[in-house]
Amino acid sequence: MTIDEAVGLKSNMHATFDSNHGKEVMRFLEKRCSWYDSVFNPTNPDLTLIAAGRREVLATIKTIMKSTPEQITALEEG
């Protein structure tokens, strides 16, 4: 990913999630992805892994929105 692509990605994410509708979607994602709750399932480790994966996707979105273009580029590389 180039710096220009990272700038565009970050801009698009802000355009999506900074609107009132986007904030509503983010609240839904936070609930659905267990952002504020434990993802641990004591009886089914597979469900723990699935929930952790959901949370990681949301964490990536939040990280991109707070990161510089250089940091976003480094995230993709590593």
Keywords:
78 residues, mainly alpha, 4 helices, flat, single chain
Mean pLDDT: 96
- Helical/strand content category: mainly alpha
Number of helices: 4
Order of helices and strands: HHHH
Task: Please give the largest β-sheet.
Answer: none
Number of strands: 0
Give a brief rundown of this model.
The chain is mostly helical and 78 residues long. It is built from 4 helices and no strands. It has one domain.
Structure explained in plain terms:
With about 80 residues, the protein is mostly helical. The chain has one domain (about 5-75). The chain is about 75% helix and about 0% strand. The protein is built from four helices and no strands. It has helices at about 5-15, 20-30, 45-65, 70-75. Helix 1 (about 5-15) packs across helix 4. The N and C termini lie close together (about 10 Å).
Chain-wise SSE layout:
Blueprint: H1 3-17, H2 20-32, H3 45-66, H4 69-77
